[in-house]
Amino acid sequence: MWGLVGALALVLALTPLTVRLAHAIGAVDRPNRDRPRIHQHPIPRIGGLAIAAGILVPYFALVQPHGRLLGIAIGAVLVCAVGLVDDLRGMRPSVKLAAVVLIALIPVVGYHMTFERIGLPVIGNLDFGWAAYPLTILWIALVANLVNLIDGMDALAAGMVAIACAAFALLAASFDRMQVAALSAIVLGACVGFLRHNYHPARVFMGDCGALTLGFVLGSLAVEGVFKSAATIALAAPLLVMAVPILDTSFVVAKRLKYKRAPWGADHNHFYHRFLRIGFSQRRTAAYLHLWAALLAGYALLLRFVPPRPFGVWDVSHTIVAVVAGLVVIAASVWMVYVLEILKQRHFEALRIRRRGGPDVEAGDHEEPLEEVLTAAPR
After folding, report:
1. 99 by DSSP, 3-state: which?
2. 287: in domain
3. Residue 255 binned pLDDT confidence (cut-offs 50, 70, 90)
4. Which of 43, 125, 224, 243 lies 20 to 30 Å from 344, alpha-carbon distance?
5. Quick count: other Cβ atoms within 10 Å of Cβ 374?
6. Host H or E run for residue 133
7. With bands split at pLDDT 50, 70 and 90, how would you rate the model's confidence at 122?
């Protein structure tokens, strides 16, 4: 808890300094500079330096990491440097991804941080053997890029990571991995401290140096704090905790592939873009997505602390609680998908017409330009 408080205070103090530094060196994010933007005014974009310092200083001072935890810290420093280069000079997505993969080798290969086995229902423990190394590297790189992709709107990425780290802190503590729980709490404090300056209207962005650092650490926390357990929830929990960015990226990539565009290209089809298109303000959009993420993370914690099969024996009352809560989570998620207009009435009409051999009603599918929506959307 001291780490959480220390990280929060440090980020609160350092973030205004990164704003001054950004203006001094020209590290300012300008609308339509190199990809679609939501904001309309230049914003400093190296606030991630304060986040990285807010994580690493309390981490080394209080946790004094060694072994795999030291590998995570070294990787966080290097991935922050990669993100900073991208923020200052720009970097091709493929080069940036390759750099993150190479840095992930440090904790995975250098310190043997892998998830060797996963507990699956009915099947039992699944041992990955040598495949654990490439799978862990891909997982960390994936999560780093997931956080980077959702960092397109004020407070969204910082809030998502804060929710995930709160859940990981509790999960890691329940598995008696207290140093991982401490690091999760430190990252939580850093994110909360940054939200003070990043909430709409944001005075600073975390940039790639912040998003990649948070994603890299988050992916590593999932491996070292949860995935390594033999419990069945060890697989489900990280996927539930990070379900919203995973779903967001999956829908975006699927749509890009549908229209034969590069999967890593920029567009206006993320969840937050969809909310803005239907008239939500940025604050309301962030609140809805944060609540959705918190609901899924809460369900992961419920399954951990009220397991349907405690000690391998089915418990009727626990199972009823899990099923009822699961139905609530599914209903809320379906409602969100409906609000986001991912499944629209015309999609079902298209299926009926296709069955009758008629024309494809989606042939003229298009998205309204976001610039027009922002003009009309509440601020």
Report:
1. helix
2. no
3. confident
4. 243
5. 16
6. helix 132-150
7. low
